[in-house]
Amino acid sequence: MFRFAHTLWRTCIAAAAALGLMAGAAQAASTVGNDARKVEIVIDKKTQRMTVYVAGEKRHEFVVSTGRAGYDTPVGTFRPSSMHKMAISVKYGNTPMPHTIFFTRVGHAIHATTALKQLGRPASHGCIRLSPENAKRVYDLVQQMGLENTTIRIV
Predict the structure, then answer these.
(1) How far apart are CA 120 and CA 55, in angstroms?
(2) Lowest mean pLDDT among 86-95, 102-111, 144-153
(3) Which has the closest alpha carbon to 108: 122, 89, 93?
(4) Cα 22 from Cα 139, distance rounded (Å)
(5) What is the DSSP string of 47-112?
(6) Which residue has the higher pLDDT, 104 or 90?
(7) Which terminus of the chain, N or C, has less C-beta within 10 A?
(8) Cα 75 from chain centroid (whole Å)
(9) pLDDT given at position 29
(10) Residue 13 burial by CB count (10 A; 0-12/13-18/19+): exposed, middle or buried?
């Protein structure tokens, strides 16, 4: 009986250790998976450039327009709150804003523009404007990776 109990005890300890290792490996894998999904969108107001990083690696760099005088684009780190394939700015004459990613409660967003000649200089009412192709790229990436995995940093 003692030999059986001793063998059973060793088997239980070995199984518990194996489960602990498997749980640790699963947690490590989920952490690695989450890091691989991290998107950081950095907007530099001085250079009017957006750089997009995925898992810490530079994926894209785009020319943008940020807020002109009197309509400043906020500085700081933000989480996107919602995405809309097409949003309409009622405040500014029902202006269409394709591929919109909102990041403040007062309506600041990243979105496409048709005012391509204004890209590269402050021109918006505080939003971050991109060419339609680049806005779609950013929108699709954030949609794929998830709002919860995305950070928007404006400097």
Answers:
(1) 26
(2) 86-95
(3) 89
(4) 36
(5) TTEEEEEETTEEEEEEE-B-B-TTSPPPPEEE---EEEEEEEETTTTSEEEEEEEE-STT--EEEE
(6) 104
(7) N
(8) 16
(9) 42
(10) exposed
pLDDT in tens, 28-56: 444 445 688 899 999 999 999 999 999 99
Using the structure block, give the residue that is written with the tokens 């949609």: 143
d(CA 153, CA 38): 13
Question: In the block, which residue shows the tokens 């890091």?
Answer: 35
Question: Which residues share a beta bridge with 76?
Answer: 154
**C-beta separation of 155 from 75 below 8 A:** yes
Residue 93's pLDDT band, with cuts at 50, 70 and 90, is confident
User: Which phi and psi angles does 32 have, rounded to 5°?
Assistant: -60, -45
Residue 5 has pLDDT above 70, yes or no: no
Rama region for 52: left / alpha / beta (φ>0; ψ in -120 to 50; rest): beta
Tell me the C-alpha distance between 21 and 56, whole Å: 28
pLDDT at 58 > cutoff 50:
yes
